[in-house]
Amino acid sequence: MKITVNVWRQKDATAKGAMVTYPLESVDEHMSFLEMLDVLNEQLTIDGEDPVAFDSDCREGICGTCGVVINGIPHGPEVTTTCQLHMRTFSDGDVIDIEPWRAGAFPVVKDLVVDRGAFDRIIQAGGYISAPTGAAVEANNIPVPKVDADHAFEAATCIGCGACVAACPNGSAMLFTAAKITHLGLLPQGQPERDSRVLGMVEQHDAEGFGGCTNIGECTAACPKGIPLDVISRLNRDLLGALSREAIGS
Ligand code: SF4
Ligand code: FES
């Protein structure tokens, strides 16, 4: 396939960025999107130009580092991660726009790389348990209703990629935050810090400059792991309960 890519180039966090056009003469349809960028970077290196900076680690849809906006859609036209998107999704002659996540709380570091440290700080504000879990316990030793186990597992599949933020017109990270709160809040081990978790994580979410949720739903449409919007309802219920208990001092 012959394709043309328009790539956001930005030297560093303070430089002014711009889209730069590169033609690619020989792209295999079985390449992943990141392998196509690898080919572009080999070409740029041979030509003595600075390769395009982009993040990746697992290239298996697990680590959440690789996200970019492709033709205006976080992770591109398929419901998957950028690393799991393949060039067969596109057609010979296509022109593809590639940009970094656009969100105030995710500042651009270079080219397609953004700083997602805000997510780490939200997790530090409460996304953990303090119960000593020890070695893996015998299955079914701690009874958890199947419906709760399934919902907790679904929420736990969030890989922290940030596509929900990039897709949201408000730049909200509520889907991410709510997935973590739901995952831990549905399990017995997550109960001791349930109130402090939701209070701390929501406070940090707001302090990082993410916007508020207005139930638009773009986040869940862009999420490569299909995290449903109802996790945000659970966050809101937990938050109201924690604020009420805080107000009456119980
Ligand atoms: S909720 Fe979905 S889109 Fe948002 S960080 Fe988690 S996996 Fe990525
Ligand atoms: S490189 Fe790990 S999810 Fe894409």
Automatic annotation (TrEMBL):
Transmembrane segments: none
Cofactor: [3Fe-4S] cluster; [2Fe-2S] cluster
Alphabetical list of InterPro entries matching this protein: 2Fe-2S_ferredoxin-like_sf, 2Fe-2S_ferredoxin-type, 2Fe2S_fd_BS, 4Fe4S_Fe-S-bd, 4Fe4S_Fe_S_CS, Beta-grasp_dom_sf, Helical_ferredxn, SDH/FRD_Iron-Sulfur
Record carries keyword Iron-sulfur: yes
Annotated ranges, domain 2Fe-2S ferredoxin-type: 18-102
SUPFAM superfamilies: 2Fe-2S ferredoxin-like, alpha-helical ferredoxin
Gene3D superfamilies named in the record: 3.10.20.30, Alpha-helical ferredoxin
A Pfam family hit: Fer2_3
Domain 4Fe-4S ferredoxin-type intervals: 149-179
Keywords recorded for this protein, A-Z: Iron, Iron-sulfur, Metal-binding
Family, similarity comment: Belongs to the succinate dehydrogenase/fumarate reductase iron-sulfur protein family.
Protein name (Swiss-Prot/TrEMBL): Succinate dehydrogenase/fumarate reductase iron-sulfur subunit
